[in-house]
C-alpha cells in the first residue's frame, strides 16, 4: 500500500469515527432531555352544577333503560352516559367529558351525597320540637363540615337523587337487598288464598254495621250468664 492510499484510508476512518461520536452524543442528549423534561399536565376543569344535573339525569335514564337494563357492561354503560351528556343542548360550550371522567365524577359525587344523607338522617332524628326543616338542614350541613372538614356543595345533587328508587337501591348493601328478597319470597309462599266472605267488615261501611254487631253480641253474653246462674 503506497502512502497516498494509506492516507486516504486514514481519512475515511477518522471521518467515520467522528460521525459515530456525533450520533452517540445526539442520542444521549435526546434521551437525557426525555427523562428530565417535565410532562405538562392537562388542567382539569371543575364540574359545574349544571353538568352535575345532566350527569345525574343521564345516570338515572340509562339505568332505567328497559332494553339494556342493569346487565350491561360497565364500559358500555358509561360510554352511553358520556354520549347522553355530550348531546345535551344545555351544555353547549362546555368541555367534552369522556366516559372515564363521567364515571369518576359520579363516584365522587355519590360518595359525598351518601355522606350527607347520613348527616341529614342524624339531624332529623335529633330534631327538637318547634324546629323547622331549615334548622335540620343547617344542622346537617354543620355535621358534614365538622366530619369532612369542608362544606357540602352538592345540595343540587342530593335533592335530585334522594327519592329516586334506582339510586336508593344502588346504594343499599347487597346483603340487605338479598335478605329483603328472601323475606318477601317466603311471605309469598306461605300466604293462603283469602275468602272475602269471611271478611264482611272489609266490604261494608264500618260506621254503619260495626255498631250493630256490637249491640247484638253484648245481650247474648248476659243471657248466657243468667242461664249459668239458674243451673247452679
UniProtKB/TrEMBL annotation:
Gene3D superfamilies named among the record's database cross-references: Homeodomain-like (1.10.10.60)
Domain Myb-like: 39-110
Stretches for region Disordered: 172-191
Protein name in the entry: Myb-like domain-containing protein
Naturally occurring in which organism (per UniProt): Arabidopsis thaliana (Mouse-ear cress)
Amino acid at each position: 500500500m503506497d502512502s497516498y492510499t494509506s492516507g486516504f484510508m486514514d481519512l475515511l476512518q477518522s471521518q467515520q469515527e467522528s460521525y459515530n461520536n456525533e450520533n452517540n452524543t445526539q442520542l444521549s442528549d435526546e434521551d437525557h432531555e426525555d427523562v428530565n423534561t417535565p410532562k405538562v399536565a392537562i388542567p382539569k376543569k371543575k364540574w359545574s352544577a349544571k353538568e352535575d344535573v345532566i350527569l345525574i339525569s343521564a345516570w338515572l335514564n340509562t339505568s332505567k333503560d328497559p332494553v339494556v337494563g342493569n346487565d350491561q357492561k360497565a364500559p358500555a354503560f358509561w360510554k352511553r352516559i358520556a354520549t347522553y351528556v355530550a348531546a345535551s343542548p344545555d351544555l353547549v360550550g362546555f368541555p367534552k367529558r369522556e366516559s372515564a371522567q363521567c364515571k369518576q365524577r359520579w363516584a365522587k359525587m355519590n360518595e359525598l351525597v351518601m355522606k350527607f344523607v347520613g348527616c341529614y338522617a342524624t339531624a332529623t332524628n335529633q330534631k327538637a320540637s318547634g324546629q323547622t326543616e331549615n334548622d335540620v338542614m343547617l344542622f346537617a350541613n354543620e355535621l358534614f363540615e365538622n366530619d369532612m372538614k369542608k362544606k357540602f356543595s352538592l345540595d343540587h345533587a342530593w335533592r335530585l337523587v334522594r327519592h329516586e328508587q334506582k339510586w336508593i337501591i344502588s346504594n343499599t348493601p347487597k346483603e340487605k337487598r338479598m335478605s329483603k328478597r328472601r323475606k318477601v319470597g317466603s311471605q309469598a309462599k306461605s300466604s293462603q288464598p283469602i275468602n272475602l266472605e269471611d271478611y264482611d267488615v272489609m266490604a261494608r261501611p264500618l260506621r254503619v254495621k260495626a255498631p250493630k254487631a256490637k249491640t247484638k253480641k253484648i245481650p247474648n253474653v248476659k243471657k248466657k250468664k243468667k242461664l249459668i246462674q239458674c243451673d247452679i
